[in-house]
Design a protein that fits this description.
Length: 600
């Protein structure tokens, strides 16, 4: 059980054993061309925003997609045939890149699922038809169980600006199993009020509502062709009762007897013994003709067996919202986990985002593994779990450096993972949506209040190479000048040279909150793990909309001792997160984390 920071494909390949997982839920990006940005609002009334993408919902045919495609072909079998056919039709398109990367991961999912395991793949109509073909090739079309429709929003104005189409309001969840014997715990939903009013029209002597149901069937089976014997006292307004002792053969004075066959062309659905058991349990009643009927009491009925139309689960409420644009409600994940797993089973979410799956699994006493390529996502999940379940909960995290050697290993093996880690540890936001490639010399940023000028900006550059020199530092100094940034942090794997230290010192100090702060600060891995931290301002904090369950307004969040902190306070005001906003968890208030963990 634990969290993994990194690409889910190598994590599954290296760390998850064959046939070890009971349930996999994955909610991958849909390739819908939407760009999900973190909108990090600048202080004051300025209209500028800085954007940081925790993930991107676009795919391109690059080296990674080509590698995945080759791995799928090497796997062989039906999926290799399907992928070669798809690439002939789609070419090296974005859609084909998406399918290649998903196919490689779904092959791993198939490997790690137990013999009675299940897969729930959450997608939207943009890609569901392609994904179903891929899943049929990997799992087999006979392992397809259902296409679940979940209404993710109440309305969507797809017809705006003259577009002629229906509003897209639903997502699709494809349900597959490994074999013909899978874990299944039947779930029920409440009856519709109109159905209750029309069907449960009777009340027993205790005032419990019930309905009468037929006891006959269209086909015979066993003891189903007998005459049902009943009796009642003559001249009294009372219901028939069973004549179990065949009293009709020796009738008593004052009693009336009757023999009731099934309806014409039908048979009894229950044996005499079963009908007798219903009577003894108080669940059999007779009509005026003597025909028996079963009494189904409303309070004993579990509800309607769950169908594949899940409109009853609403989108994540405000009390859960963490700002992830595709965040799913806890109720949705609880339903899936309760249906297709048992306590202590292992649940996997390879795209765990803000951690709703692992939160639901923890609540339901399951083991769990969550994987995400975002450093922020992993840290946010860790904080959510500790906030809800206490600091005693063990949350192992793999992939995030715990010491100098592991940080060097990350820099050597995953340049962009090292960049995410460094920017996140500084409490800053990734720049340029976290995209690989040209970044304009900026890897991270932080907005802070700087009275009397109101807004201040800090930029970060991360260098993961084995060597670093004055050239890189001067380029970053030019970036600070170009962007008119008040402060800068140069974070490097290698130790800065004396010439670099002299160059940084030459920029002097910047006054923030009335205190002098070095305009350009240098930090290396060695100094970081020796305990040295740069002098940083407090980032602009964010609040969530008020809710009854939130702690009283004005309660100050305690400082996290693990977060780098400024040695003095800078006064400011708080802002509300915008729609589709996702933030570095170090600046997210505690009440946002606690609310997101409320049991649904």
């Amino acid at each position: 059980m634990g969290l993994y920071f990194g690409d889910n494909l190598p994590v599954m390949q290296k760390h998850i054993a064959d046939a070890s997982v009971a349930l996999v839920y994955l909610d991958p990006p849909f390739n819908s061309k939407a760009q999900y940005n973190l909108l990090y609002e600048t202080p004051g009334n300025e209209r500028e925003t800085a954007q940081q993408g925790v993930f991107r919902d676009t795919w391109n045919w690059e080296d990674e997609a080509d590698t995945c495609y080759r791995e799928v072909l090497a796997h062989g079998g039906q999926i290799a045939l399907i992928m070669t056919a798809l690439i002939k039709a789609l070419g090296h398109s974005d859609t084909m890149a998406y399918l290649a990367m998903m196919a490689a991961r779904l092959i791993e999912v198939h490997r790690i699922l137990k013999a009675d395991g299940s897969l729930y793949l959450h997608c939207d109509p943009t890609a569901s038809h392609y994904l179903k073909i891929v899943l049929d090739a990997i799992f087999g079309p006979q392992r397809y169980r259902s296409e679940i429709s979940w209404r993710r929003t109440s309305s969507h104005n797809d017809a705006k600006q003259g577009r002629k189409q229906y509003g897209n309001v639903r997502d699709i969840i494809l349900f597959y199993t490994i074999s013909d014997e899978w874990c299944w715990n039947q779930q029920y939903v409440p009856y519709d009020p109109d159905y209750i009013e029309s069907e449960y029209r009777h009340a027993d002597t205790d005032g419990q509502d019930y309905k009468e149901t037929d006891v006959t069937a269209a086909k015979p089976g066993g003891d189903t062709s007998y005459i049902w014997r009943v009796k009642r006292r003559e001249g009294r307004k009372e219901r028939w009762q069973p004549d179990f002792d065949d009293e009709y053969l020796r009738p008593r004075t004052g009693w009336v007897y009757n023999g009731v066959p099934p309806y014409q062309g039908r048979f009894w659905a229950y044996s005499r013994a079963n009908l007798r058991a219903f009577w003894e349990q108080g669940e059999l009643i007779h009509r005026e003709t003597g025909m028996p009927r079963i009494m189904q009491r409303l309070h004993k009925m579990p509800g309607v067996p769950l169908q594949n139309d899940w409109q009853d689960i609403k989108p994540a409420p405000k009390s859960e919202a963490l700002g992830y644009p595709t965040q799913k409600p806890l109720a949705l994940l609880r339903r899936i986990i309760e249906t297709s797993s048992n306590p202590d089973d292992l649940i996997l979410d390879p795209f765990c985002g803000c951690g709703t799956t692992v939160a639901a699994a923890q609540q339901l006493k399951r083991q769990w593994v969550g994987i995400d390529v975002s450093y922020y996502a992993v840290r946010l999940i860790e904080r959510r779990l500790r906030r809800k379940f206490g600091n005693d909960i063990v949350v192992p995290i793999e992939g995030i450096p715990a010491d100098y050697l592991s940080a060097e290993g990350l820099a050597e093996n995953d340049k962009y993972g090292f960049q995410q880690w460094a920017v996140g540890e500084l409490g800053c936001q990734l720049w340029n949506n976290g995209k690989k490639g040209r970044d304009g010399g900026i890897d991270g940023e932080m907005w802070f209040f700087n009275p009397p000028h109101n807004a201040g900006r800090l930029l970060v550059q991360v260098k993961g190479g084995k060597k670093v020199g004055i050239k890189e530092l001067r380029e970053f100094k030019d970036v600070l000048n170009r962007e008119n940034a008040e402060l800068g942090v140069f974070f490097s794997r290698a130790a800065p040279t004396p010439e670099m230290r002299t160059e940084a010192a030459s920029l002097g100090d910047q006054h923030v909150g009335g205190k002098p702060v070095r305009k350009l600060q240098l930090i290396s891995l060695a100094t970081w793990y020796s305990g040295q931290r740069p002098q940083l301002p407090i980032p602009v904090p964010l609040t969530i909309p008020k809710d009854k369950s939130v702690r009283a307004a004005g309660q100050i969040r305690r400082a996290d001792p693990k977060q780098p902190s400024f040695t003095f306070l800078v006064e400011g005001v708080q802002t509300k997160p915008r729609k589709n906003q996702v933030v570095n968890p170090s600046i997210l208030p505690d009440e946002a984390i606690s609310l997101s963990m409320e049991v649904v």
